[in-house]
Automatic annotation (TrEMBL):
Belongs to the 'GDSL' lipolytic enzyme family. Keywords: Hydrolase, Lipid degradation, Lipid metabolism. This is GDSL esterase/lipase. It comes from the Eukaryota. GO terms for biological process: lipid catabolic process. Coiled coil: none annotated. It holds the Pfam family Lipase_GDSL. It comes from Vitis rotundifolia (Muscadine grape). One of its GO terms (molecular function) is hydrolase activity, acting on ester bonds. InterPro entries: GDSL, SGNH_hydro_sf. PANTHER family: GDSL ESTERASE_LIPASE, OSJNBB0059K02.9 PROTEIN.
Length: 222
């Protein structure tokens, strides 16, 4: 993220964007959990993750402050979605239940983020930082098997549409001969998740519907 902000700084220096442009814009800061999956992939454990989470949030705060210092008056930052409900975690229960351990870690991240954003809003009189609560919006859809408007129904929201034929394959995998080693459900619009990590377009539409209250709050600040 620091690198991406560096790129934005270059665009400002090259006058591609101006300071007034930033003042009239909304910055979206999206954290999806890759910091934590990379930490675990490199040998970290859920036991030590609790001490790593504050480091991630602290760096996030540094980046938020930097965006504000560049002239961004409105900054929306995403809370983490329930990573324990992603199919890569629920496959262990045949896509029947979320992983509580992972969601506990996510809840801790989101708590620290909420506290940090509250502090930032108290410190910056001319700026409003808003959290887009992906955790609550995801859980609302997953628990109700639909968006709150009732326009999207998901028969088993924890099961992905696209899956590998076995644990050694994933969505989009092919073997040495180029033969497909994955299956796709008959009706992708009835699935909340596309693969083991990403929601379908219909899934994101449902999350968007659940976020309407927060988005209206953000719009009122602009």
């Amino acid at each position: 993220m620091t690198t991406q902000i560096d790129f934005l700084q270059e665009l400002l220096s090259n006058k591609v964007y101006t300071w007034p442009d930033l003042q009239s814009s909304v910055a979206l800061v999206s954290i999806a959990g890759n910091d934590y999956s990379a930490y675990l992939a490199r040998g970290g454990s859920f036991q030590t993750l609790q001490s790593f989470i504050p480091l991630v949030v602290d760096q996030l705060v540094v980046d938020l402050k930097r965006l504000h210092g560049m002239g961004m008056k409105k900054v929306a930052v995403t809370a983490l979605e329930p990573l324990g409900c992603l199919p890569q975690a629920t496959v262990a229960s045949s896509f029947q239940e979320c992983n509580g351990t992972q969601n506990t870690a996510v809840t801790f991240h989101n708590l620290l983020l909420s506290q940090a954003v509250t502090k930032l809003n108290n410190e910056t009189k001319d700026s409003s930082f808003v959290i887009l609560d992906l955790y609550a919006s995801f859980m609302s859809v997953l628990e109700n098997k639909a968006d709150h408007l009732g326009s999207s129904k998901f028969e088993n929201p924890l099961k992905p549409c696209c899956m590998g034929l076995s644990s050694k394959y994933s969505c989009g995998s092919v073997d040495e001969s180029g033969a497909k080693q994955y299956t796709i459900c008959d009706d992708p619009e009835s699935a909340f998740f596309w693969d083991t990590v990403h929601p379908t377009q219909q899934g994101w539409n449902a999350v968007y519907s659940a976020l309407q209250g927060t988005l209206q709050q953000l719009h009122s600040l602009c």
